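Troubleshooting: if your tokenizer reports a length mismatch, compare your output against this known-good record of 171 residues.
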Amino acid sequence: GVKDEVTAKVCGAISKKADGCGSVIQSQQGKLPFGVGLGDASMVFFVGTFILTLFNGFHTGTLYAFALISLPMVLFSYYVQAITLKTWCLLCLAISAILISQFVLLQLTFTNWDFSFPYVLSTFTIFTLASLGWTRIKKLWKGNLELQQTKREYYTFKRHKDFFLNSLKEK
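Known-good structure output:
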């Protein structure tokens, strides 16, 4: 996950702590295997599913399989929030509600597990590209946020006349 001000304000709406989402998303307890965070997994899941549906069409069997796989993640998220961290993340709860709704809707329309090798291969390719793309975008986004913070500190220093002049005299 990437921590930014807007997300922190939205997510802090129901949390008792100042940054409920940040504490959940950034926590080590909320990591999946290989150090993947719940926020990153959610981003790749939704982007991958959107691209898969956009280019390969609606395939109930594949989407149902993803919905089944997502249910343990929802339970894990609830466990981490309620038991381990004792704080709630509005964004995490919304994502969980979407995943549960997706499962229920697909459960009602599921007919068979009709998989084809080309579809499975394209699914794997799309999710791999979504993972790699999100990893790169996240790195750039974090770098941009750090640069903005550095610029803010620089301009604060530069615009504070007395502090600036005292620093020049010391050198």
